Amino acid sequence: KEVPAPRPNPELQRSLIDEQIRNETERLAQARAADEAAHQAKAVRERQADSARESARARAAAEYIDRVRAKIRGNIVLPADVRGNPEAVFEVSQLPNGEVLPPLRLKRSSGHAGLDLAIERAILKSSPLPRPPSPELFSRVLELRFRPLEDGEGR
Predict the structure, then answer these.
(1) Comparing C-alpha atoms, which of 46, 60, 55 is closest to residue 134?
(2) 102: domain CATH number?
(3) What is the pLDDT of residues 18-62, one digit of tens each?
(4) What pLDDT is recorded for position 151?
(5) Domain annotation covers residue 155
């Protein structure tokens, strides 16, 4: 006599299918979470790299301005009657080769006309200005600040 084929148990089949769906859903959720974590980690690394590049660029720009100011400072002949530590701010236009383009713009006077003129003469005498270490640091217009005591010129 033939043994009848076992009858499928609909409850068991439904339970197995539900378990497969749960397992697949969990696997997909884990994969999505891993992808999101990898994406966030990559974004953090990119932000850190951008920050490091910007920091290096800012340091290089500051060093370049310091070199420009040092060259000019070497040409300043301070008036004997300068008192305190007044600050003068000049806007200087330059060509890519460092040649200073007159007229200079005195953005903020030191309050001592003789000091302002001495700094202006020193800027013009310092042409051409040092070139930046890399072309992307070149700026056609520089804002330069001078204080006799900070610049080592004080008496």
Answers:
(1) 60
(2) 3.30.1150.10
(3) 999 999 999 999 999 999 999 999 999 999 999 999 999 999 999
(4) 52
(5) no
Instruction: Select from 14, 150, 154, 10 the least CA-distant residue to 69.
Output: 150
**Prediction pTM value:** 0.68
Give yes or no for a contact between 91 and 141, defined as CB atoms under 8 angstroms apart.
Answer: yes
In a domain, 40, yes or no: no
State the amino acid at position 113 in one-letter form. Answer: A
Q: Which residues pair with 88 in a beta bridge?
A: 146
- In single-letter form, the type of residue at position 108 comes to R
| CA–CA distance, 8 with 108 (Å, rounded to integer) | 93
Containing domain of residue 117, as a range?
61-146
Residue 36 CB contacts under 8 Å (≥ 6 apart), including other chains: none
Q: Would you say residue 7 lies in a domain?
A: no
Please state the domain count of the chain: 1
So what's the pLDDT on residue 5? 74
Q: Give a yes or no: residue 153 inside a domain.
A: no
Could you read off the pLDDT of 67-99 as tens digits, one per residue?
999 999 999 999 999 988 999 999 999 999 999
